[in-house]
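Form 7-S
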Amino acid sequence: MDALIIVFASGLISLFAAFSKKPILVLSSALGGLLLGIVSIIYQITGGQSFVKLGYDGLEFTQASLYYSLTILVFAFLLIGIGYSRFKEITEHIGEYIGLLLFSATGAVIMTAFTDMFMFFLGLEILSIPIYVMAGSNKHNALSNEASLKYFLMGSFATGVLLFGVAWIYGATGSFKVSEIAQAIFQMNIDNTMLFIGILFILAAFLFKVGAAPFHFWSPDVYDGAPHVVTGFMASVVKIAAFSAFLKLFHEAFAMAHDFWVPALSGLMILTLFVGNLSAIRQTKLKRLLAYSSITHVGYTLLVLISGSMTSVFDMWFYMTGYGFSVIALIAIGISVNDEEDKIEALKGLGKRNPLLAIAGVIAVLSLAGIPLTAGFFGKYLVLADAWKEHSTLVIIALVNSAISIYYYLKVFGAIVSKSETEQAPIKLSLLTTLIIVITIIGMIGLPFIIPFL
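Output:
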């Protein structure tokens, strides 16, 4: 609860700090608030008590929700730091840009800790609405305007479907609380049509939000049109918050209806993997490739929900954390290269222009591909190993898709390590950007070794 209040307050402070017309004050208030929030979460993880005591039980920060919240704040810190060079170019709006990202992060934290449908819906909307605005923040780019409108329309439709599902669940169980819904399902006749309809609507809404096939069609255009920082935020913070809520609802509230929704989710997982991979092969733009790559990784993450093992919470957290560090590294490279067309070919000669960026890019691509000794490899291993006992066929399909993905990741890898055909100026990084690149490298390589200390 402490971190939630701190991040929200820092968002407000950032808005007012913008009146000074000094971007560094806005950045300092935002990063300072996020750092304080990160420290407060670590304090609670290590056994400390929250300083804020509220009577409302709609939020419960368990050990699992604290870990997810920690990752969300770390990613928000990295992305705001990376995007500062772009934000400060428009001094009159920097407060709004950073403030909106902080408010969205507040909604993401709520989604990790809700205990009833009211707070879940509130967190989802606080998370989503600022991103609808931020996706269209590049006002002079028609693609950005299109991304904002498309994301808003699709997101609003998914929210309507979600609310319809919640209404059906309430009609079947008589409660909005996660624990009471689970208890009601345990006591009722499992062949309850009203319950099944509600679960299907909520499942469809979640698949829209995370970009799983066949509900993925908004994702490539939105990722491509949105500014780099917003693309990174959607691929990391929004994804981990949505999957955290997804896991809580389906493994706690709807656990007793497991036999009903698992077959549907299994078929959608297979479709998501093939759609994401086969579509990514043809991409020539970095952000569009990340969009289809993101769809593929959604497929792997759905396998965690399907397997339903005792370690699902940790497996999903580890997998999404490793994936997030890789995406943020590539987003940082995209911002630094600053190619208006966002072509993958623009990464040629990166090793000569800035060796640190090249190293981060190579590790990020290897991690996304699941190559050994990276966080992506260990995350994928955890997911597939836990699913092997009961869902070996799905694991084999996932491995086949993992092999397919290596093809288009090699395209990015090859661009980074190849020489440029023309002479290009070196890329100079600020101290803050350099620090963030180093943190992402540590995250992609060191995450498996940091875990025992968390």
